[in-house]
Amino acid sequence: MADFDYMKIVYAALTIFLTINYGLILQGIIGKIYARVGKRMGIRIFQPYVNLIRQWATRTSISHGVMYYLGPVFRFSGGAGILIFLPIIYGAPIFSSFSFAGDLVLISYFMFLGTLGMALGGGESGHPYAALGVSRGLSQVTMAEIPMIMAVYSIAVQYHSLNITEIVAAQQGSFLNWTLFTNPIATAAAMLAFLGSMMRSPFDVVLAPQEIPIGPPTEYQSQFLAMLMTNRTIFPVAKTILFVNFFFGGVALYDNYLLTFLVFFLKTFLVYMWSVFVGLSFPRFRVDHSIRWFLKYPMLIGLISIIFVNIRY
Amino acid sequence: MAKMNYKKRFSDLEKRMVTSPDGEEFEVDPMKDYFSDARPKVHPPSKITPLENFMNWCRAESIYILGFGTGCGAIEMRPLMSPMYDAFRFGIHWRPTPRQSTVFVIGGYASVKTIKRIVRSYEQMQGPKWVIGLCSCTINGGMYWDSYNTVNRLDHYIPVDVYITGCMPRPEALLDGFTVLKKRIKEGRGEGSNEYAENFDWYKANQKKIIKSWDMPDYNW
What we know:
The structure holds 2 protein chains of 2 kinds.
Chain A: H1 7-37, H2 47-56, H3 66-84, H4 103-124, H5 130-159, H6 164-170, H7 179-182, H8 184-197, H9 222-247, H10 257-281, H11 287-312
Helix pairs in contact in A: 1-9, 1-10, 2-9, 3-4, 3-9, 4-5, 5-8, 5-11, 8-9, 8-11, 9-10
Chain B: H1 2-9, E1 16-19, E2 25-28, H2 30-34, H3 49-61, E3 63-66, E4 92-95, E5 103-107, H4 112-124, E6 130-134, H5 137-140, E7 162-164, H6 171-186, H7 192-198, H8 200-210
Parallel strand pairs in B: 3-4, 5-6, 6-7
Antiparallel strand pairs in B: 1-2
Helix pairs in contact in B: 3-6
């Protein structure tokens, strides 16, 4: 432990803090876009901030036991865990805190941790249908994970590495080095899986108002809900950064810091917008529909990408 | 009478001894496991005034309404979601569960059957919480003043912050009511949940006068 750089803890905290702010602003903008498409004025840009602070400002809260406490904590650590092991800006010491040799495998676990925490917490809430809601949500997320993991393995084979920093490093130089151009099949599979984990239409039936009263978050209130809301701002951003790193060349550190952040915002925003475009264009799938859909096209494309990568590399 | 009714209808909710698969015997009291009958406590506002003012501003600007339409006035809530009125731009949202909502809009007359559900939903909401009485029926019974199954004054049963008169009021009136409620909260006068806790016995006595089949704990949250 002697050579451990304690500043890394500060950097990680800073990363999480900045991501929460970015996520909240992004939520406001996306909410506005959704409203304008529906010919409404929509929420104010700062509304997500107010909602979050208001949840923390609730005076009473009810707990149902230990797992009920730990559910939101698991969920938050799932989102924060992805963030702090991710090279957010390649080459910058501040924003690639705990990157190490096998972080790709660890991050794949972190992506699932939150949902499992929710399952445990929801089960403890005493709600008779919580287990049903969780299993519906879990089965959809698991199915979205299959093509995602196939695509991730495919690029791990392609770059001969399980370290995300190395995968980003291999894509530097020209935009033609991005995985998008060197391995378009894996990118296609992963981008379809991306839709399933962003909790937007067509795959958002597990959070629909009819689903919530029988789903796990029914009982979550006050500060517990605030914790879940914090994770909901972090998680999509973390996921988007992950995808930018895997398929769109990551964000390299330029001499000009402003340019670096501009590239970061542009890339993450456009990748995020992919789920918004699809969400605004297509109606909802039922859970059984979405499971069948994920097992059909995205998984097939994922399989092809693995075969392709094994022949070529 | 009420006690007997309750026993007959919910025999599986009675206290009993249960043997676990390991042979261990323990007591199960479903009413205690699912509900808490502890009395509500007064949660005074923070002593730090600027902090409390800021929090009140946040509470006022982010209103979560319980999506529970109790009377004919509930129909006036729906246009607020549409592009014509668009309440979202004032920070007003709808939530499907009482646990996450802060504002309860009583949409019109509260019948004897509904007042029970209103009380249960209100008690499950987390404080600070506010109530808007929509339509004249919530003020004095309106056109149901001497009806056999309608409550006359809503604020004898739960504390009400804002009344909106009319039969029926237009959605604009409801939006205006939200503006008044926001002003009230920002001034620190929206302490309905504390009022309810302070005058708990009075509210309970009034509720029990109306609700004959009292098959629930006194305070169910």
